[in-house]
Design brief:
This protein is 5% helix and 29% strand. The protein contains four helices and 36 strands. The chain folds into two domains: 222 residues, no CATH class; 242 residues, no CATH class. It has 501 residues and is mainly beta.
Length: 501
């Protein structure tokens, strides 16, 4: 069968010739209404780009798909999608029957007529204006009235799919069993091998015998060429108007999180026996006198980072005294010695043997001087202990919990703010050692100002901090994985109990 090809097009079109309209061999008749039609193929030429049914138009007529769920043998509430997923470059009308039920009884509630660009294999339709048809009938005794077209594929075995349709055997396109993408039969060659079109004809009042001469029926078949671009909505350069993905999609770099977690080890102390035998001592079966971040849970930073990003973020984590698990009023474990008045301060001679019911010695309390960072500078012992601010420094503040004559076991006077060495030691996601640089680590004692009701409930708050604020200035390059940084903090009370003579 001869074809016509325009070098500006991406396809060739069958030229259909009927030599004898009274004894037709090319013109066929539909199964129900006996309407004449011809079948043509529109075939991609050299596959410059995919040829899809949704991009074709006939004589620039409006295109539509009319889908009646209750009549549709495919048991689909909407027209079946394609294996290639290429949307139409321009909109067409999708007409879906009013709230309807499929033959299998399933309800469909997406009815109405909408202008869409949805990727669909068809059947698409276009209809000519009645006045134009009437003019052709007067002039030529014959006119084309409408066209229906559908995509034809080759499955992975090379067999054609959707090629079996013809109005001669089944005039209602609702009864055409279209290709179901879920079957997975078409995976190798996902674009149509050709478009199959049925052009319906109408004769004048004298029928085909009324033709007085050879008649040429010309239909201008045009294509709205695909629009290339990135079709992945998750890409940074997603183009909503693109119908064919050109492989240009770019994606934001993977973002990784940073989490700080408490370690599961006991905090060594040494504590007095009054603390270790009280209801304060155990938190989750771990001996500690502080709660990490106030609730014992890990802290995940709000910011995320791509591999290679510089991380320069200040992290602040609170260490709060533990709460009792015993039956009297809940309050944090802040110990005050001796208990001889509502606002009595700690005994400067911190004797571990001082007796008191329900309270331990102030040696057990949470102070900046008591914290040790175990995983600093390759677990270097010198980096683990806090550095005090010198008493000669104008920024020096003396903690409430010490007397003017008291010094720790090193002979130094503690300060409310202490500093630590740099470089946190942790492991990567494969368990390999990883060093994360910092630009400063400090702990500050935070006191409860003028909260007399709290002081009455727990007099220790007048003298001891109600929390410690840990501040870590991060300064490292983000690796290509999430970070879970375990802060190996110990509470070592040796620098806050006893007096050096």
């Amino acid at each position: 069968m001869p074809v016509t090809f325009n070098s500006n097009n991406n396809y060739s079109v069958d030229i259909v010739t009927e030599p004898d309209v009274l004894n037709p061999t090319v013109i066929q008749y539909s199964s129900d209404t006996n309407t004449p039609f011809v079948e043509i193929k529109i075939t991609p030429d050299i596959f410059q780009y995919p040829l899809v049914a949704g991009n074709l138009n006939f004589d620039s007529l409006p295109r539509f798909i009319k889908h009646e769920p209750s009549l549709n043998i495919n048991n689909s509430c909407t027209p079946l999608s394609t294996p290639h997923g290429v949307n139409s470059s321009f909109t067409y009308e999708e007409i879906i029957g009013t709230n309807d039920y499929l033959p299998n009884g399933q309800g469909c509630y997406n009815s109405g007529a909408n202008m869409v660009t949805t990727s669909s294999q068809g059947p698409y339709q276009s209809e000519r204006n009645g006045a134009i048809i009437y003019g052709d009938l007067l002039a030529n005794g014959v006119a084309w009235t409408k066209v229906i077209w559908v995509e034809v594929y080759a499955d992975d075995n090379g067999d054609l799919i959707n090629d079996q349709f013809s109005p001669a055997t089944n005039e209602s396109e609702h009864n055409w069993v279209m290709y179901n993408v879920a079957s997975g039969a078409v995976t190798t060659n996902i674009y149509p091998v050709y478009i199959k079109a049925f052009v319906f004809l109408e004769y004048g009042s004298n029928g085909p015998g009324g033709l007085s001469s050879n008649i040429n029926i010309q239909i201008d078949i045009d294509e709205n060429s695909p629009v290339y671009g990135c079709t992945n909505a998750n890409a940074t350069n997603y183009y909503a108007g693109a119908t064919v993905d050109d492989g240009s999609c770019t994606f934001p770099p993977t973002q990784y999180s940073i989490t700080f977690s408490p370690d599961a080890a006991n905090a060594a102390g040494p504590y007095t026996s009054i603390f270790t035998t009280s209801g304060f001592a155990l938190s989750g079966n771990v001996l500690k006198n502080y709660r990490f971040n106030g609730d014992g849970l890990a802290v995940t930073l709000a910011n995320t980072y791509a591999a290679g990003d510089g991380v320069a973020e200040l992290v602040e984590i609170d260490l709060v005294p533990v709460e009792p698990s015993i039956g009297f009023n809940n309050y944090e474990a802040v110990y005050d010695f001796p208990i001889t008045g509502t606002y009595s301060g700690p005994d400067w001679n911190l004797d571990p043997l001082d007796p008191a019911t329900g309270f331990g010695d102030s040696q057990n309390n949470l102070t900046a001087a008591s914290i040790r960072f175990l995983n600093l500078n390759g677990y270097d012992a010198l980096s683990q202990s806090p550095v005090y601010i010198s008493q000669s420094d104008p920024s020096y503040v003396q903690p409430n919990w010490i007397s003017d004559t008291w010094a720790d076991l090193t002979g130094n006077m503690p300060s409310t703010v202490v500093y630590f060495g740099d470089d946190l030691e942790t492991v990567d996601d494969n368990g390999n050692a990883l060093t994360l640089e910092t630009d400063g680590i400090q702990i500050e004692e935070i006191y409860d100002d003028n909260s007399t009701s709290e002081w009455i409930l727990n007099p220790g708050y007048e003298w001891f901090p109600f929390k410690l604020k840990v501040s870590i200035q991060l300064d490292f390059i983000m690796p290509a994985h999430d970070l879970n940084i375990v802060l190996e903090l110990d509470h070592n009370t040796e620098n806050q109990g006893g007096i050096i003579i």
